[in-house]
Amino acid sequence: MNRRLAAILFYDVVGYSRAMGQDETATLTALKQTYSQIIQPLADYHQGRMIKVMGDGGFMEFTSAVDAVHFAICMQHAIGLANPHQVEGQRLSYRIGINIGDVIADGDDLYGDGVNIAARLEALADPGGICVHQSVREQIRGKLHLDFHDLGEVDVKNIEKPVRASSVEFNHLAAVVAALPAEHQTQAPKASIRWRTAAGLVAGLFILGGSGWWQISVPGPAPTEIERTALPLPDKPSLAVLPFANLSNDPNQEGFADGLTEDLITDLSRISGLFVVARNSTFVYKGQSVNIPLVAEELGVQYVLEGSARRSGDQVRVNAQLIDAATGGHIWAERYDGDVTDIFKVQDAFIRKIAKALAINLTMEEEQEIALGQTSDIEAREVFQTGWESFLEYSAEDNASAVDQFKKALEIDPDYGRAHAALSLAYLRGCQLRWNKPLGLSAGEANAYAIRSLAETTERPSSLANVAASGVNLYNNRYEIAKIDATRAITQDPNDPEAYIAMAWSMVTTGQPELGLELIDRAMRLNPTYPSYYVFAQAMAHYSMGDLEQTAMVLEAALERDPKAEALAIIAAATYARLQRFDEAHAALKLAAPEADQAALGAIAYIYHFPFEWEQRPEMVASVIDGLHLAALPPDKPIEYLLGRLQTGDTSKRRGAALILGLPGLDAADTVPLLITALSDESKAVQGQAAVSLGKIGPAAASALPALAALKEVPIVGRKAQKAIVAISGSAQP
Question: Where residue 90 falls among pLDDT bands split at 50, 70, 90?
Answer without folding.
Answer: low
